[in-house]
Amino acid sequence: MNKKIAKYTHPNKEIIKIGILESLGTYLLPEILPDFLKQNPQVEIQLFENFPRENEKNLLSGNIDCYIGQTPEAIDSSLDIVSNGGEKYYIVISPASPYYQAGKFILDPNELDLKELLQEPFVLSVPGSAIRHQVNGVFQRFHLEPKVVLESKSIITATSLAIHGMGLTISTASIIKRIGETPINLFPISHDLINVVFFIASRRGKNKSKALKNLIREFKTKNLQAMIR
């Protein structure tokens, strides 16, 4: 209700409604919004944190002004898309795994056999999430069905459980960086198999407000390449 009446209680504020996946927002929004709001103090941001398909549906129906997501090739071609940055995927290996190598952090891709790793038990995000769609593609490339021991709506939860020995998981740099330091191995997955590109989408043909154009420009000019060293 508060979101619906905001335009009446704050008539001088321009509202931008952003759709975004929660786990993606925890990395991208702090990179984008603070500087944007300093430069555009008349703007009020409203967040709609949903799975990708719901965000896309809300954008197409006009319920939100823009949608920040990943893998732009997967969304409706009628939308205006601006891409920037991205991140790498890793298999997270805890000390509980027989594949764990003490004293190492990021493994060389030649140190382990990816197909062999994919046959281990996995903790994964639920079907319907952006990352699960990508992860399923990796298993399909090797004609494998994942051995799922647990699914979570949160990739942060799935990653944390894997770190604590519940199974392996496939996660991204921005997620792994948020979890406290602990002994793990990260096995990098080739960009040819799985790759994340961030995007901001808006409706084509609609007159975009100056503030929305500024937000898109802010997204485009930021360094949004999540990395682990």
Automatic annotation (TrEMBL):
Lineage, highest ranks first: Bacteria, Bacillati, Bacillota, Bacilli, Lactobacillales
All copies of domain LysR substrate-binding, residue ranges: 15-220
One GO BP: regulation of DNA-templated transcription
Species, as recorded: Lactobacillus gasseri SV-16A-US
InterPro entries: HTH-type_LysR_regulators, LysR_subst-bd
GO CC terms in record: cytosol
CDD domains assigned to the protein according to its UniProt record, in alphabetical order: PBP2_LTTR_substrate (cd05466)
Protein name: Transcription regulator
